Structures are given as C-alpha cells and as structure tokens.
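Here is an idea for our session: we take a single protein and study its fold together. To get us started, please write out a protein record for me. Start from the sequence, derive the backbone structure tokens from it, and show both lines together. Go ahead whenever you are ready, and we will take it from there:
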Amino acid sequence: MKWKATDHLTIEGGYSHFFAGSYLSDTGPSDDADFGYVQASVAF
C-alpha cells in the first residue's frame, strides 16, 4: 500500500508470506514466516 499524506510525506506498508519448501525441511527448521512493514518517506 502507498499513501501520499502530504506533498512531502508518503507512508508505505506491505505484507509478505514465506512458504518454507522441501529444501528447508531437509536442512533445518522449516516453518513458514510472515513479514510486515511500515515506512515513511519525507521529501524536502
């Protein structure tokens, strides 16, 4: 997602899911993982 809050401020966010495959289960822990982020960009 991306939202331009003002002319100088942009807020972005996202989400991702990592599917652990057979290679990971063969070499160690093999849990799926979820990632989320939020960031702000300020332009001068």
The chain has a mean pLDDT of 92. The two ends are 22 Å apart (CA to CA).
